[in-house]
Amino acid sequence: MRPPTGRASTALAVLGWCCAAALAVGVGLAAVSALGRGILDGGPPMTSPEQVRRELARPAPSTPGDGAERPDAGGAGSARVDRTPGGTVTAGCSGDELASLRSWSPAQGFRARDVEDGPVEEAELTFESEETEVEITVVCDGTRPLVSTEIDR
Question: Acidic residues composition bias: which ranges (predicted)?
Fold first, then answer.
């Protein structure tokens, strides 16, 4: 058998390339489908205008804002959420007037350090970035947390 000529060799190369491309597309589609919803699915069902109106008419959930107080899940005292330039902190007081930092979340670019989360007489936390330090101190007035913030730039 003789080797293919220039035209035949080009035709074989194009045919081989087309087969490889088809195989790659098929493998890609199979992988996407195996990972979850495929790219060929129709997506979530459409929402009717009536459903949208009903959803918009529902009251919004209430969330504590800056310095908001809410009853403690354990029933003793209250919790206070404070948002600062360095991050957000939730503070609370126990029945024996000890302060605690229940949760904290640094803002982007900040990190938490020197955490004394309690329960103690004075709970403390510092949010720190390259340029700024935000020092947070919590003490209790009965079962109410009093949060003070000092910002050093």
Answer: 117-129
